[in-house]
Input
Amino acid sequence: MSAVAATGFVRIGRALMAVAVSALVLAIASSADPAPAQRQIFVPSAHPMATAAGLAVLKRGGSAVDAAIAVEALSPARQDGGWDIIEGQGNLAHPSYAGVSLGLLHGSQPDAIVLCDEPGRPHMRGLPARSMPDLADVLDGNLHAARLTNPDVIAVGVSLNTSNLKPAEAAGVRTAIEKRLGLPVQDPVVDGVARIVDRIQECFGDPRPVANAGR
Output
C-alpha cells in the first residue's frame, strides 16, 4: 500500500484483508510490559527497510501504532500486479479491537475481504457476556465501513477454523455458510484456499495472485 493510503487517495496495487468475527489479534508489542527492553517484538513487512524502521521505533520505547506509522511511511507502492495480504487485527463488532480494525480497514483500502470465523465459539474473545455476532452482519458492516476509502471493495470468501469440529460437522457448517452468503467457504488447513483464489481471479481478472503477507 502507498504511504498516502490514510488520506483516502487511491493507492496502487491490490489488497486483500482478512477480517474476523471474534478477534484475530497479532501482537506486535505490548506497551503494558514492565520492561520494554525485554519485550518480544516483531514487525511483519514486505520491505526490509520498513521492517528495520518499525523495529527501531519499538526498541526505543515506541508503541505498536508508532511502529506501524514508520513501516507505512517506508513501504513502497505495489507495482508488480500482485496482492498485499493484510491481517484485519480484530473485529469491528468487538469493543476491545474495533478501533484498530477500523483504522486498518480505512487505511489499507482493501479491494477484497475474506471473513474469518471459528464455528462453535461461545462468546466474543475475552468477553464472556457478549455473544457472537451474526456472520452476515459482520460481513455487511466491514463492507460498509471499507467503502469509505474503496467504494469497489467486495467479499471473496470465508475462512473457517474448524479444528474443534468433527469432519462431517465441519463440512455441514461450510455448506450452510456458503449457501447463506453465496461465497466460497474453506478451512485453509483442511481444504486449502484454491476456491477463494479462484473467486479472486473470477472477480478481478488477475493472474493467480502473487502476494506479500503482513503488509
About this structure: The longest strand covers residues 14-20. The two ends are 8 Å apart (CA to CA). The chain has seven helices and six strands. The CA atoms of residues 50 and 157 lie 30 Å apart.
